[in-house]
Amino acid sequence: MAILLKILILIGGFVLGTVLVKYNYQLTQLVGHSYLAEKYLGEGGTYTMWKLLGVVLIIITVIYVF
Fold first, then answer.
1. What is the CA radius of gyration of the chain?
2. Measuring CA to CA, which residue among 30, 27, 13 is closest to residue 5?
3. CB neighbourhood size of 57 (10 A)
4. How far apart (Å, rounded) are the C-alpha atoms in residues 3 and 26?
5. How far apart are CA 48 and CA 40, in angstroms?
6. What is the pTM of this model?
7. Tens digit of pLDDT for each residue in 10-60?
8. Burial level of 8, CB count in 10 A (0-12/13-18/19+)?
9. What per-residue confidence (pLDDT) applies to 31?
10. How many other CB atoms sit within 10 Å of the CB of residue 20?
11. Which of the ends of the chain has fewer CB neighbours closer than 10 A, N or C?
12. DSSP-derived secondary structure letter, 1
């Protein structure tokens, strides 16, 4: 049962991470621009923030499962 749960978490993490990376423009249009991301990551930092969050989510998911 625990293996099945970890497989589901792995699939969910990959799907959510991929959505964050692929649809960062639409997410930014939906929730708006982040002041801190624009300040520290430069112009277009909100899009970069979503991409980084997606990649970090995928990496954390893989670390958790294995």
1. 14
2. 13
3. 19
4. 34
5. 11
6. 0.88
7. 999 999 999 999 999 999 999 999 999 999 999 999 999 999 999 999 999
8. exposed
9. 94
10. 20
11. N
12. -
Q: Output the six-digit token pair for 48.
A: 């970069």
Per residue in 24-51, is it b (16+ CB within 10 Å) or e — as a string? beebbeeeeebeebbeeeeeebbbbbbe
Secondary structure of 20-66 as H, E, C letters: HHHCHHHHHHHHCCCHHHHHHHCCCHHHHHHHHHHHHHHHHHHHHHC
4 Cβ contact list (under 8 Å, min separation 6): none
Residue 1 has pLDDT above 90, yes or no: no
Both structure tokens of 1: 């049962």
**Cβ–Cβ < 8 Å for 23, 53:** no
